[in-house]
Amino acid sequence: MIAAIQALPNGVAALRPLHSSDIPAALYLGWQEGWNQTETDWARFLSLPPRRALAISVNGALVATATTALFGPVGWVGMVVVAPNFRGQGLGRAIVWSAVQALWEAGARTVKLDATPLGQPLYARLGFTATFKLHRYRGVATPQPFEGVTPISAEPELFARACALDRLAYGVDRSALLRALAADFPSLAAYCEAPGAGCGYVLGRHGRRFCLIGPLVATTPRVARNLLAWAFSSLSGQAVAFDCPEPNAEANGLALELGLEPTRSFTRMYLGQEPYSEDTGLIYATSGAEKG
Ligand SMILES: CC(C)(COP(=O)(O)OP(=O)(O)OC[C@H]1O[C@@H](n2cnc3c(N)ncnc32)[C@H](O)[C@@H]1OP(=O)(O)O)[C@@H](O)C(=O)NCCC(=O)NCCS
After folding, report:
1. 248-268 confidence digits (pLDDT tens)
2. Does the domain at residues 136-285 carry the CATH identifier 3.40.630.10?
3. Which of 80, 122, 143, 268 has a 20 to 30 Å separation from 290 between CA atoms?
4. For a pocket test of ligand 1, which of 93, 128, 270 has the largest count of ligand atoms closer than 8 A to its C-beta?
5. What average pLDDT score do residues 126-130 get?
6. pLDDT higher than threshold 90 for residue 11
7. Which sign, positive or negative, has the C-alpha torsion 255, 214, 191, 193?
8. Smallest Cα–Cα separation from 50: which of 69, 65, 66?
9. What is the per-residue burial (b if ≥16 Cβ within 10 Å, else e) of 140-157?
10. Do domains 4-108 and 136-285 have the same CATH topology?
11. Ligand 1 centroid to 273 CA: how many Å?
């Protein structure tokens, strides 16, 4: 179904749902920006409620994408990209606004996103408010000592505890996202409980250019360090990255201590009456710019 069409100097743009058959072209748009997603990531984006990813095609070719996710009252927009030669013609505004409308219709009370520096002015014009920055740290994983970490594949009942912790940090139920990540990348899913020193969980995903570690939620820096050390040991020698909320100074400190370097930043923004603030003190690594 075509939701809207618009005449451009270089063709007729059709705004429509994005289908799984669009994934190869959507991947190519992201790769042109140096993004890290794979086909597995896109399949996951399309499977998450409310299943309202959007596409703009011009003369049949995909030129813009946006994905949506809904975690209780919080909607999320991700994967916003317009092909370089179609920018500055209102397509970014049209696809983001349609994604926002789809989320309001699906029941969101607030819509969030992690903006790149290129995207931030567009979102600001649409009324989004900036909250905090996130820094992406990258490097090569080296083996580290750790203790008290159990792979979730070894004790599947730990997954429920991870979901409960995640809810404490984000204030909403994100278990569908966590379940999908743990199913896609079981070797990157672990839970840590250090007697008297807190608890936490980590997930991750292998990308085109590096392994993105996250989300990582922990009640103490000690637990966060153990989980990162476990992930680094499993991924020894591989390119890794994670996105830390700036307000969590311990998280940013850990990234530097583990030898990673800051490479880029995002700005978390929201639209709506209620920011549904995360507890950034518990969030050491987010799920990535597409999901927060
Ligand atoms: C960000 C991006 C999607 C914008 O797409 P676009 O089609 O060029 O945006 P539009 O033409 O719809 O512009 C919408 C509004 O934002 C403004 N705008 C867009 N990019 C801007 C920029 N870099 N700086 C200042 N203003 C900008 C436009 O002037 C326009 O304002 P107006 O509606 O008041 O005239 C596009 O630049 C892109 O794909 N960038 C690379 C990927 C990326 O960073 N995506 C964002 C992920 S969060």
Report:
1. 999 999 999 999 999 999 999
2. no
3. 143
4. 93
5. 98
6. no
7. positive
8. 69
9. ebeebebebbebbeeeee
10. yes
11. 24
Ligand 1 binding pocket includes 91 (Cβ within 6 Å) = yes
Please tell me whether the overall predicted TM-score, pTM, comes out greater than 0.90 for this model: yes
Protein residue closest via CA to atom 30 of ligand 1? 122
Mean pLDDT, the chain, as a whole number?
95
Which residue has its alpha carbon closest to ligand 1 atom 41? Answer: 81
* Domain spans of the chain, in order of start: 4-108, 136-285
Could you tell which of 54, 118, 265 is best to mutate to test the pocket of ligand 1, judged by most ligand atoms within 8 Å of the CB?
118
Q: In terms of Cα–Cα distance, which of 58, 51, 55, 3 is closest to 27?
A: 55
- Fold classification of 4-108 is Aminopeptidase (3.40.630)
Please report, as a single letter, which amino acid is at residue 211. C
